[in-house]
Amino acid sequence: MADRLSRNAELVKFFAQAYPGIPRTRLVKFIYMADVLAREYLARPLSTLSYRRDKYGPYDPAVDDVVEELIAAGHAEERREGWGFGAIGGAYKRLYDLHRPVAFSFSLPESAVLDYIVTNYVKMGWKEFLNDVVYESPPVKSTPRKGTPLPMESLDGAGTARVGFRLDEVLQAEEAGRRGDVVTLSAFMDELRAQAPA
Amino acid sequence: MSYEPRLQRNATAKISQFLHETYRTRAAYDVATEEIRLALLRLAASPKLAVSPPGPFETRPIYRFALNADGSNREVEVCFCFDVNDPGERTILITDFREV
Description:
Number of helices of chain B: 2
Number of helices of chain A: 9
Largest sheet of chain B: 4 strands, mixed
Distance between the termini of chain A: 62 Å
Radius of gyration of chain A: 21 Å
Oligomer: heterodimer
Strand order of the largest sheet of chain A: 1-5-4
């Protein structure tokens, strides 16, 4: 029987698959945005990370342990890649997926949230993503002081309230629609007329 | 270019329940039913009438329209998507309904 990855490790693997060589800060921001959307539309986070305001927005040092778990399980490897020159240079920690499939435990609405993150943010420039997306998210905007925990709970259900429809119900309906559980407009109108009050 | 509207059973159940609970007389019920038919045909003719909120509903637009069957103005909404099983994307699938 295969060892089960933790939920956080599954998320890290998912984003490492979607973004080969993902830098650590970007990885945390993707998981953060997935948690933001999941809280807004599903009223629960995808990860168990606890974010605080750091130099580049939300961060939780616990992500280091999650990356270690994934590496120890043989699903990813980390490479340090330098940038710049001498004193003004540094090194990125980049995570590479090792292409071993796992049975992800994400539900249909959770997968929709993750799909949205990958579709919209993977190819977005770093500065644009930080300034226009991460820094504009309500928990970061409301927390100017470095080191302060971000009030993630305040997001719970906010997206559903804004939109008016429940994401899980809409996704189930789409799925049922794909299976053919649909009716044409004219057939539905005939049904309604047949059910008219006397 | 017009689309063909199809409705998933979750949405039809909600529309049917709304009509029966809101319009008790035959006349009002019939008028409201026709208003819904015309609204969905308008949507099918021009899906751009709907809004696409950022986030997971970006590909699940929401179309709001008004019903005046019994003299009261009631706003309702449907959520829809373009049918991924339809390679030409000539079908819209109504997935949900609610009174605003």
